[in-house]
Amino acid sequence: MRFFSDNAAAAHPAVLEALAAANRLDTAYDGDAWSKQLDGAFSDLFETKVRSLWIATGTAANSLALAALCPPFGGVICHREAHISVDECGAPEFFTHGAKLLLSDGEGAKLSPAAVEAVCAGIRPDVHQVQPRALSITNATEYGRAYTPDEVAALGEVAKRRGLGFHMDGARFANAVAHLGCSPADLTWRGGVDALSFGFVKNGGMNAEALIFFKPELAEATLYRRKRAGHLFSKGRFLAAQILAMLKDELWLDNASAANRGAALLAQAAGGRLIHPVEANEVFLRVTADEAARLRALGFDFYDWGPGAARLVISWDQDETAIRPLAEAIAAL
Amino acid sequence: MRFFSDNAAAAHPAVLEALAAANRLDTAYDGDAWSKQLDGAFSDLFETKVRSLWIATGTAANSLALAALCPPFGGVICHREAHISVDECGAPEFFTHGAKLLLSDGEGAKLSPAAVEAVCAGIRPDVHQVQPRALSITNATEYGRAYTPDEVAALGEVAKRRGLGFHMDGARFANAVAHLGCSPADLTWRGGVDALSFGFVKNGGMNAEALIFFKPELAEATLYRRKRAGHLFSKGRFLAAQILAMLKDELWLDNASAANRGAALLAQAAGGRLIHPVEANEVFLRVTADEAARLRALGFDFYDWGPGAARLVISWDQDETAIRPLAEAIAAL
Amino acid sequence: MRFFSDNAAAAHPAVLEALAAANRLDTAYDGDAWSKQLDGAFSDLFETKVRSLWIATGTAANSLALAALCPPFGGVICHREAHISVDECGAPEFFTHGAKLLLSDGEGAKLSPAAVEAVCAGIRPDVHQVQPRALSITNATEYGRAYTPDEVAALGEVAKRRGLGFHMDGARFANAVAHLGCSPADLTWRGGVDALSFGFVKNGGMNAEALIFFKPELAEATLYRRKRAGHLFSKGRFLAAQILAMLKDELWLDNASAANRGAALLAQAAGGRLIHPVEANEVFLRVTADEAARLRALGFDFYDWGPGAARLVISWDQDETAIRPLAEAIAAL
Amino acid sequence: MRFFSDNAAAAHPAVLEALAAANRLDTAYDGDAWSKQLDGAFSDLFETKVRSLWIATGTAANSLALAALCPPFGGVICHREAHISVDECGAPEFFTHGAKLLLSDGEGAKLSPAAVEAVCAGIRPDVHQVQPRALSITNATEYGRAYTPDEVAALGEVAKRRGLGFHMDGARFANAVAHLGCSPADLTWRGGVDALSFGFVKNGGMNAEALIFFKPELAEATLYRRKRAGHLFSKGRFLAAQILAMLKDELWLDNASAANRGAALLAQAAGGRLIHPVEANEVFLRVTADEAARLRALGFDFYDWGPGAARLVISWDQDETAIRPLAEAIAAL
């Protein structure tokens, strides 16, 4: 049983149905009937007027957001273990034309206002040093931790005071919302977020994420950047349709809740082995190499996360039946 | 009836079936069972060992190819009306980090060896001028003209002599092959082509093209560039599966042949109105504004192509029944 | 005697004296006493508040200006024979991160409002095509032609209407002003120019040009871009001092006038051989290969300018005595 | 008395004399008599065939070197406090088109082989992470520490084993050589260095550094990159002449020795206040805010280097007479 990545999971049947339903003649690029519904659908969801673009990958969505918020000569404050820094092969640098990631620390890959202030304070305000222009956080974080609306708002305050654009990498935004039970609006623009990469692929989608601009004027240049990066699909309706399917009847929230439940089940079984509180669909365990080997011998697959640790990710389609054997195996270690 | 773009057409049912079949757990990115078959499948098709990457859009495939062939300070010789110059919003400049497109002319958007030589001859070999490093042609061209294997080889000769990487934009490669009845190998690497953007989306695919490197060593850096451009999909099997479905039983060739047949039918009806010989699935007609209006009044949709001209594109799914009414309407003008 | 480039000439003695005078301890970069005088000096000269930066080369000044006026995904309208297009090895593409030069034509390397409008009109206002965002002209042009204040203003009108930033490459701005006898203000911002590369090197300087922003707010980002491009010299006072020396007592104008006079002398001698009216310090002659050889045999050096043509450039330090023999040799051909 | 930067110092009289001597007609750019001597002069100095380019600033020299050694999608290992990371406003990112600086630590801003290995070991060899492609060290370091030939060679070993290009930022290379008494060859290519930014400006030059390629083939692309960055000066002879003047009769070494002697004098006076051993022309002192104020009240100017520390830099033109009062003031604190 695979627990190494929610990217490995299948797409939800509703997504495939949506593709089939969209499989007819329509206008190319984003002039079709599905793409035109996105702004409305997301504006409803976020209770404010937003501009939204379908983007095929989270990496592209994140990088396009950063390019909209930070000039080539600026810096983006983020956590040292942020996906944009560690796992995107320099995509932010590519899309921003060489902006610098200004790395900070914090437990569970979370940034605090103080940490952001410390980065700013350490930079001389002269032309010799890259000046911070944007702040990027991941919610839920790379360690499955959720920023609360209050925590987001506190960072939004710093961003505003320092003149930083504020981006949220929401590859697992759904899991954060599901965990917190808050409104998407409270977790984003009400706390000062300017742009959100809203992930669907890890959550039952196939290849469509959404980039949401809460300051609609930021979208304009991004339309050109998206095209220029080869991300304006000629049959864009197949991306829009996926997203609409995920939004319909809160499928995105249901899927995330299911994955979170699975993770909670494992967390319960793991007890003192937990490295981080489980607030999304990821579980980080202390396990010896021997223990890890025993779990694998039982057919469970997962990532080693440095020596003595393992990462297990639960997907939308892994229900209690799927999780239970692993939970028991962990408890039995 | 829409004749304005083959991008508007539906995806072939086999492509959707392939998506459904691929909709199960597998390794993320391009480590899955489908992606791993691509090199073999394309090596068979091209009768030589190739490296192949799935890429979601033709714009990205073209630009990644050019980035592999041309340094940031180099130039890419192409036709003034090439898609890479006119319709990709500067994507080649983005991916190559500012290489310059060196524009040339030629009937039907075709470049001749003499035209390429003329571009080279007009550039002083000093550091003040951008030196040509690559040659890019489109086959079939933006005007639906096909380069023959001999014509490709003649350009390949120039490229070799001048030290130029040689790229073929094959958004409608299938239509060219179908028209010429030649082997894919003869139309590409045997004529000196280094990299081919092999299009599937206009030909019944959904969102997967292939970038083929006939010099396998060129692929290495491109793997990083693809990731960095946000084009490494986490569920890459859904792209690979589309391509494999298109390759199976020569579906790519059947679809292109069907579209070509439709175009030939229109060409016959158009007679002296033809602006370009019809060698693929595009038909360019001389029509007055009044005539264009009359066709539209009958329900036919297409692009105006400057004053007095119209472009009609036939898709893989438009059979004789679909084409016949338009052919008759054109003949009756 | 060398007539092939005003770049080959010596620096004016006043410039060397200024270097010597500046050769003492001061603050590094542009915090020194000389650099701080630039804004005032240029604001006086241009009769309006400007921001000015010393830049060592015209290529860098031009490219920094374009980067200030045009986003990476935009286009810069310029003449097909503009220095920025032909002779800077893609520097504008480098500094702007891949903006496209949109080439137009016009006699004597001059753009007309109609030509600019035609470029704009030929571009579909959609994301597939690079949208024009800036206009760049050279004054005096690459063929030694001067735009008058009225001509500049007419282009400024178009730029304003089309939302284009307006840049003037003034590598030979001094020669244009000397020829026209107008005020620097009339030839620039009063006609809508936003940024001027004010050349000194071809006119008796050593290695200092000025980049003038008539919209002071444009300078801010350029300070970072200058540093980032390695163009913020640590001993910047040696650049500022050169410029101040050139501005003092209108040395810049005197030098240009001297060079223009020399060119006028040659023009007179050349008569019907002139390819372009002589309005600056460049003379383009119709000469056969044999005639060119005869001139060279007499010790005159110059550029061939394609078959049957020669370019002669007069420098600030070539007085009548230096010119006369060439004028006679031309007359005697 | 200013001790805050060797950039603030005057240029050596021999440099000004060289400028005066070069102030006559010659070929533009780097086709002149002075520029042509550089390769020979540096090949002599380094006892091997090198290619050398004049570059006006250290920032540009460093960045051009890195662009020659590292692709846009690669990483450059350097010290966290390296000038290229901290004080060049993202110039390396600009010139390399977005390569990432991979930061490491080490006492006195020195990298050890183990530290470099640790960076490499921490990076998964897949396309999701930026792969190290180059190593850059500063000699003497930002804290005035000198790498010995053995230390350089040990790093060169790692670079070779890991396939990393090896760059040395030699803004104060002269000071390191003067301190070590070794040959320039031993400190560079014999230890595996591929490219050296050889600084002259901090050492008595005006605005000319040299970029030395010990693998001559690396120079070719850099010639284009230099032009494209606006760093090919039209009157390049004024840069070449400065460098030749500095090389003549080992002026570069004499100047550096003089500055080092001054620093040694201060070091002696400072005793236990020294934060770093003094191996070049920089002295880092522990001083309280009050002590710093007292020194400043006596007319000595310098940088605060965080709380409780001061940086003093001695220039080539500060002889014992100039230094003695400061040494005494420090001793008297």
From TrEMBL, chains A, B, C, D:
Transmembrane segments: none annotated. Residues 3-288 form the Aromatic amino acid beta-eliminating lyase/threonine aldolase domain. One of its GO terms (biological process) is amino acid metabolic process. This is Low specificity L-threonine aldolase. It holds the Pfam family Beta_elim_lyase. Belongs to the threonine aldolase family. PANTHER family: L-THREONINE ALDOLASE-RELATED, LOW SPECIFICITY L-THREONINE ALDOLASE. The keyword Ribonucleoprotein does not apply. It comes from Sphingomonas horti. Its cofactor is pyridoxal 5'-phosphate. Homotetramer. It comes from the Bacteria. SUPFAM superfamilies: PLP-dependent transferases. Gene3D superfamilies: Aspartate Aminotransferase, domain 1, Type I PLP-dependent aspartate aminotransferase-like (Major domain). GO terms for molecular function: lyase activity. Keywords: Pyridoxal phosphate. InterPro entries: ArAA_b-elim_lyase/Thr_aldolase, PyrdxlP-dep_Trfase, PyrdxlP-dep_Trfase_major, PyrdxlP-dep_Trfase_small.
